[in-house]
Design goal:
The chain is built from 18 helices and 23 strands. The two termini are 38 Å apart. Among the domains are: 112 residues, Potassium Channel Kv1.1, Chain A (2-Layer Sandwich), CATH 3.30.710.10; 98 residues, Serine Threonine Protein Phosphatase 5, Tetratricopeptide repeat. By secondary structure, it is an alpha+beta fold. The protein is 32% helix and 25% strand. Pfam families: BACK, BTB, Kelch_1.
Length: 485
């Protein structure tokens, strides 16, 4: 393919076998129609339906000759040079001429360049073109980095409609709701005479009842824009009533636009486990912004302990486990957007104390205990096909081990084989479907925590046997260096 592309490009540059001329303003490009038709449905329709029989010269407007040159180059070579200087103009030209390959290249480039200074501009720019993925990415970036974005020049120049779109979102990421109030004050101050008439509308999007009582009294109710507007004073009064209510009705609070909590940008979930002497189906979510845990349990789920968890493609998977009666080979998938659980394909083996990790879009489940035997088997789940497949077994039986991924390999360390805690570790290469024993840890570790960071693998704490049947906590950390892997 590369050779044929090179040949066609050479023919174009030499003017051989060309059957049409593209004219942009005063610049002409000799081309082969079939080559342009291959990369763009626009040109296919242009040459087939929108031109006169025998026509050889085709005028194209709405773009510069430089952009046309890049598009033709891409049609022949499959590559295009995207820069910060040409990306917007090239993206508009490629969108106009329906060249999806260039559109994707430009969107990928802009996505990599997303920053506090340009995310609003990119979001607004992509509204005019067919690039929904980049538009969503840019808007999500605005919401996630709002506390920094409010000080950018782009934020000050937003329309009131754009401001409302942002601050009205439940998933706006702010540690304190006062940030939103101060953002609209800042936006109005940029052009007060023109913008102060929008203040009441904007204030209605602020969750005033999420502020502290002191801030609401000292900063909101005392603000001149609030004091001079009856509607705004009423909103502040209602918010204060909610804050000072001793026994609030939480269902009505959630429905009240002044009090409805913002969704946290990031949460830590604790799912199942052992509680009060039995396995539990409890789920708690930790919000780092408010330093609080919230119970989000689903009473219909079975209790599950000693299971593995994985986050993949926006969903959370609970793998294997134990409910005091049964050792599970079942796998449950939780969709955070719909707050629903779904059963997915079961594993080949029942596994509690299982080690689970994610690599290249697949879930790996390794070792564990099936109620009779500590396992050396391992398997891999592909969400696209909803199927588990067995992979090569590990060199040792391991339950209560821990695993991570680094440089496209899976690493598993420590664990318990039924007789002793393990000091061994090994890595798995998906390409060769082989496990390789690596450097021993300094300590035997079961119940260890393993994590990859900065090209190293860290082993954190664990249990270690003191004497037969007795374990004690081991509080030490060791690191596996890259040259040891």
């Amino acid at each position: 393919m590369a050779m044929s592309s090179s040949v066609f490009n050479d023919l174009r540059q030499e003017g051989d076998f060309c059957d049409a001329v593209i004219r942009v303003k005063d610049v002409e490009f000799q081309i082969h129609k079939v080559i342009l038709c291959k990369c763009s449905k626009y040109f296919l329709a242009f040459f087939r339906r929108w031109s006169a029989p025998g026509q050889q010269v085709f005028n194209i407007g709405g773009l510069s000759a430089d952009m046309m040159a890049l598009i033709i180059e891409f049609a022949y070579t499959g590559s295009v040079h995207v820069t910060g200087d040409n990306v917007e103009e090239l993206l508009l030209a490629a969108d106009q001429l329906d060249v999806p390959g260039i559109v994707q290249n430009c969107c990928d480039f802009m996505e990599e360049q997303l920053s506090v200074k340009n995310c609003i501009g990119i979001h607004l720019f992509t509204k005019s073109i067919n690039c929904s993925r980049l538009q969503h990415k840019a808007f999500s970036y605005v919401l996630a980095h709002f506390e920094e974005v409010v000080f950018s020049q782009e934020f000050q120049q937003l329309s009131v409609e754009n401001i409302i779109e942002i601050i009205g979102r439940d998933d706006l990421n702010v540690k304190e709701e006062s940030t939103v109030f101060e953002a609209i004050i800042l936006w109005i101050a940029y052009s007060p005479e023109e913008r102060k008439g929008h203040f009441a509308t904007l204030l209605s999007k602020v969750r005033l009842a999420l502020m502290s009582q002191d801030y609401l009294k000292s900063n909101v109710r005392s603000n001149e824009l609030v004091k001079n507007n009856i509607e705004c004073k009423l909103m502040a009064r209602k918010a204060l009533d909610i804050i000072t209510c001793i026994t609030p009705n939480y269902s009505s609070v959630l429905c009240n636009h002044l009090a409805r909590p913002r969704l946290p940008n990031t949460v830590l979930l604790a799912i199942g486990g052992w509680s009060g002497g039995d396995p539990t189906n409890g789920i708690e979510a930790y919000d780092i912004r408010t330093d609080s845990w919230v119970n989000v349990s689903n009473g219909h789920e079975r209790p599950r302990a000693y299971h593995g968890t994985a986050f993949l493609n926006g969903d959370i998977y609970c793998v294997g486990g134990f409910d005091r009666v049964e050792h599970f080979n079942s796998v449950r998938r939780y969709d955070p957007n719909t707050h629903t659980w779904h059963e997915v394909a079961s594993m080949y083996y029942r596994r509690c104390y299982v080690s689970v990790t994610v690599l290249n879009g697949c879930i790996y489940a390794m070792g564990g205990y099936d109620g009779h035997t500590r396992l050396s088997t391992a398997e891999r789940y592909m969400p696209e096909t909803n199927q588990w497949s067995l992979i090569a077994p590990m060199s040792e039986q391991r339950s209560d081990a821990s695993c991570t991924t680094l440089h496209d390999k899976v690493y598993i360390c420590g664990g318990f084989n039924g007789n002793e805690c393990l000091q061994t570790a090994e890595s798995y290469c998906p390409e060769s479907n082989q496990w390789t024993v690596i450097t021993l840890m300094n300590c035997r570790r079961s119940g260890v925590g393993i994590i990859a960071h900065a090209d190293h693998i860290f082993a954190v704490n664990s249990e270690k046997p003191f004497r037969a049947g007795v374990f004690y906590s081991l509080k030490c950390v060791e690191r596996l260096a890259p040259f040891s892997i």
